[in-house]
Amino acid sequence: MDYPGNLIVVAAPSGAGKSSLVKALLELDSKVQPSVSHTTRAPRGQENHGREYFFTSQEEFDAMVKAGAFLEWAEVHGNRYGTSKKAIEDRIAQGADVVLEIDFQGAIQIKQIFANAVLIFILPPSWEELRSRLERRGEDSPEVIELRLKNAAVEMAQASKFDFVIINELFDRAVFDLKAIVHAQRLKFSAQRRARSDTFKSLNIG
Ligand SMILES: Nc1nc2c(ncn2[C@@H]2O[C@H](COP(=O)(O)OP(=O)(O)O)[C@@H](O)[C@H]2O)c(=O)[nH]1
Ligand SMILES: Nc1ncnc2c1ncn2[C@@H]1O[C@H](COP(=O)(O)OP(=O)(O)O)[C@@H](O)[C@H]1O
Question: How far is residue 2 CA from its own chain's centroid?
Answer without folding.
Answer: 19
